[in-house]
Each structure stands twice: as structure tokens, then as C-alpha cells.
Amino acid sequence: MNSELRQDLVSGDWIVIAPSRAKRPDQFIKLHKIKRIKTPVKGCPFEDLQKSGHHPPILKFKNSHDWEAVVVENKYPAFTHINVCASPEKRGPYSVMEGIGHHNLVITRDHYKNFPKLSKQNADLVFKAFVDYYKILANDYCLAYVSIFHNWGLKAGASIYHPHYQIIALPIVPPDVEHSLEGSNNYYKKNKKCVHCVMLEWELKEKKRIVYENKSAVVLAPFVMREPFELRIFPKKHFSYFEDTPSAVMRDIVFALQKALQKMEKRLHDPDYNFFIHTSPLRDKNKYKHYHWHIEILPKFNISAGFEQGTGIEITTVDPDEAAKFLR
Amino acid sequence: MNSELRQDLVSGDWIVIAPSRAKRPDQFIKLHKIKRIKTPVKGCPFEDLQKSGHHPPILKFKNSHDWEAVVVENKYPAFTHINVCASPEKRGPYSVMEGIGHHNLVITRDHYKNFPKLSKQNADLVFKAFVDYYKILANDYCLAYVSIFHNWGLKAGASIYHPHYQIIALPIVPPDVEHSLEGSNNYYKKNKKCVHCVMLEWELKEKKRIVYENKSAVVLAPFVMREPFELRIFPKKHFSYFEDTPSAVMRDIVFALQKALQKMEKRLHDPDYNFFIHTSPLRDKNKYKHYHWHIEILPKFNISAGFEQGTGIEITTVDPDEAAKFLR
């Protein structure tokens, strides 16, 4: 069988599914099995936050006792907050802007419990931390976008083992998000429908790439899969704004995310991965009603080589239908 | 010092230079020093091409004796050639296209001589192979774009040690190239100038990020550097089409590429890297006169984590000015 080019409905980008270069999922996994390095509790900078020189937590979340999740400032921030807004200035022909924004961490209590291992209650707390802090950031009129993500494992860029999540608030709407918003808007203008709703309707009818679903959420292997075993989690109903999602829906999404990661951990032998939230920008809240927020999980299997870097076309060697079947 | 957002002149994308998270170049390099795995000549599939089941070479290039470089079909192609053109068809709401195209390799004779170690004469031959085969591909009216690239090292996606280069011909213009062509065209319409020429003029005046130059070519660390120690090689004069570059200019470009890679090998301790050519599409040759073809080299240091994946914003922890000074 020949390879196939597939075009993303939102970004318009193309990827290649190349099954002739493919390994069957089980062989693929065997090739990529690497033992995770767990650093011990002793010496972990996220065990005693005060002792490791962190500022006092901005937000604390507890269940029965003590804290289960906190929001703290990142000690080595990529963006820092000062009392002015960033504005573009010229340097030669270029535009530059001071890196004004926020860079915070959500740290969970248990050194050994990553997101899929958290109790349902504590997993909900993590998302409560995301939403609560997101809403605080929304009041800062210097900010344009908040990116929430999780790095799991060295290959995914996590330099500290202890599970933690990052919230970066930016003075610009990031290029990839801008690109998706444009794609979603163009589709809406042309078809009077949300592009993600159309895609979900088709996927729920086809059933081939659905990995898990509950009342309000669905986990699927995208038809245009950039990375082997990539998964996406969508609210079934159309919500544009992460922060305004009803809490019953959010609980179903959190549970679906846990399920997706549990399946990955079990079937793919605990791979390194990133997950991140794609939502609408903070400002002009009426402008992005066409957009459908969601979560993307990208396990770290592919190496981005010269072709991917030079063209922006990812070559995926695992068929999305088989990936979903393998994970289900 | 705070971090700084910088906008690419061509793509409009933003990156972050975060010196507060940075290591000085020499410390940075110490951290990333890894010994290269050289597989032996015995068992190398590129030593005796016939014996390892390759089709006879499409093109052979020799200097004094035997071949020094050949163009051969990739045994495991991502794109395959049949006697029809690829055309988009619908699958559900998606567009798909058969992976019709070409996937070829340029293999050089010496198992241990990567591009920076080749004699000047043999390095020129590699680019002669690129140009000659490019011109053959240009006659196939099914094709839209030819991507030429090199993967060096496992981390850069090279599964075989023996130096080889890849030529992939595609039925579409790749999204990243399309994006750059648009940016270049928009700049031209607005300013009546080539965006790359403007940038080169500024860089040659500032001199801070120039790593090497000769009569026709310049090597620089881009002001908007996506990867630590990224380098770009430009013809000083404006040429839109790789394949139509005068051979004296091409020789200077090849020499500049060798210089750039020699400096990387020496100063950065032989890192893994990709290089690729960004040029204008095969068709509508009058449409892209605004574009300035060039070569980009991306060493493999960064890990693309949740932030980069979720936003498209790269965070670079080495200052481009310092990178250039360190390499010069």
C-alpha cells in the first residue's frame, strides 16, 4: 500500500500516513520501550516548597488534609511579570517585545502519582487549579493568551520527575493557536458549522478512531495524526472557552483525560508525553465562539528530522485506526 | 535580564530568547556532549549498493575514479512514483491524497566523511547531484515541490550512519514553505523589497551574528533563532530558484555550508543536526521571484515540550549574538 497525505481540517496542514514504513503497533512499542528514571523523594525540590526556596503558593487546594495541589511561581520563569504591558518595538527590521507575562506551576502532592494515577478527586483539583488561576490571569489586561500544559518524562522536556503542570500567560496569541482560530473561523464562515463539531460527528458515526467516551467527553486518535498514538479529548458539546465549561462537563473531560493516559501507560508502556489545552484567547470574548476548546496528548516517539523541519509535514508510520484499536 | 519575544520577518511567528534560563555557550555545550555511535563499514547497506538490494543508481558522479556520489531510490520510500498524478479526494469531512511522489537518496562514497569532511570537489559533486536530479524531477508535471535535506546522527533521525542526503518530491507545496512564500510575498507587496535581502543588509551592517562570509555567500545565526546555534546560509545576491543559481555562486554556498558545519563540529563537539534547502516551488516560476532561496541548519539540542507543541513558540536559551561569537 502506498502512503497517504491527509489534510488537517482546522490548520489546513498536511501529514503523511506511511504504512509501508510502519511497524505494527506492538512491534512499534517494543522498539520504543525505555525504562523511566524516577528520581527519589529525597532532594526533590517539590517536596518542601519553602525549603527549596519557592515563594509561598498563590493558590492552595486541599481535600481532606493539607494541600493536594498548589499554584506557585516558577523559580526559572520564561516570562516575568512587571507592572507594564509588553509592546512591540523595532530592532533593525525586526519586531521585538519584552517577555512580560507569567510562568507558574501546579504541583501535586504525591511524588509518585502522575495524572493518570491521581484519585478522581485530586485529578479534578488539578483542573480546578487550572481554571481558578486562569480566571485570575484573565483580569490582567496585558495578557492575550494562557497556555496550560504538562511535560511527562525527560524526552518530553520535564527536568524534574515530581509531577507538575505549567501555566504560561503571554502578551500575544501564539502563532499555532492563531492559525487554528483562523482555520476554525474560515470553516465557520463557509459552512455555518463548528469544524470540530463536524469532525466529532463523523468520528462518532465511524467509531474507528474512538478510544473512550462518556456522557460529555470523547477521546479519539485523530484522522490526521501527527505523532504515533496522538490522542485528543473534546467536550462533546460546543464550548469555546475552557474557563467557562460547566463543572459537570469538566469532570467528564478530566476523567476522559485520565482514561486516555491510563490506556497509554498500560498499552504503550508509560511513554514520555506532553499534553496541552487549546482554548480561545483571553480578550474579545465574542470573537471566538466558532472555536471548540480541547486537549491534545502527544507521546514522544517521533524524531523530527530534516523532512519534517524543512516542510512542516509530519510522517506518521502508525495508522490512526490501528492506534485507536490498540489503545481502546 | 528579562526574556524577549522576537518575531520572524518571513513567517510572522514569534520565538522567545530566555537568557535568564540560559547557560553560557561553553556550559551549554558541556551539558549536551554525547559520543557519536559510528557503525562499522562491514554490514553498511551503502557500501555495496547492488549487494544490499538497491536498484541501479539513477545518476552517478565521479571525479578521478569510480563514483563519489550517486542518486538512488530509497528502498523504504515515504512517497512512491506511479504513472498518475495525486489528486485530493474526500474521506468524511477530510481531504486525502495518495502519497505519489519520489523519495531518493544521494549517497557519498566514503563511509566516514560527512559533508564538512568532504573535499571541496566532492562537496560540489553532492550539490551537483541535487541540482541535476532536481532538474529531472522538474519535468514531472505531477510534482509541486522538492525537499532536499540531510539528517546527521540518531537524534536527527538518521537511522544509517553512512553519510547520505535525501530528495523528496511532493505533489503539494508543503505548509511551512507555503507559509514562508506568503510572508515573503506580503513583505514584497508592502515594501517593494525582498524580505531576506533586507534582513541580510541589516545583518551585514550589524556584523554581530555573521559567522562566515565569502564573495557570494553568508552564514549567520538568525536574530530569530529557534534552536540553539541554528545557522542559515544565504546567497548574498537575490536568487529565487535553487536550480538556476550560477555555478560560481553555488560553489561559494557549498563552501560556506562546509565552513558552517566544520565550525559546528569543532566548537559544539560534532552535534547531531539537520540541514535543508528552502527554495521556490517547481511550478508557476514567475510567481515566486520575491523569494530568496537558502539553507537552514538546525542542530539537535532543544526538546520540544508542551509549551512549544501547544503554542508553536520556541524558547531558545542561548543568545544568537553569543552563539555567533562562539562559533565564528
Automatic annotation (TrEMBL), chains A, B:
Record-linked Pfam families: DUF4921
Gene3D superfamilies on file: HIT-like
Keywords: Nucleotidyltransferase, Transferase
Keyword Transferase on entry: yes
Residue ranges of the TM segments: none
Example of a GO biological process term: galactose metabolic process
Protein's UniProt keywords contain Nucleotidyltransferase: yes
Residues at the active site: 164 (tele-ump-histidine intermediate)
UniProt name for this protein: Galactose-1-phosphate uridylyltransferase
Domain of life: Bacteria
Residue span(s) of domain DUF4921: 101-322
MF GO annotations: UDP-glucose:hexose-1-phosphate uridylyltransferase activity; zinc ion binding
InterPro entries linked to this entry: ADP-glucose_phosphorylase (IPR053177), DUF4921 (IPR032576), GalP_UDPtransf1 (IPR001937), HIT-like_sf (IPR036265)
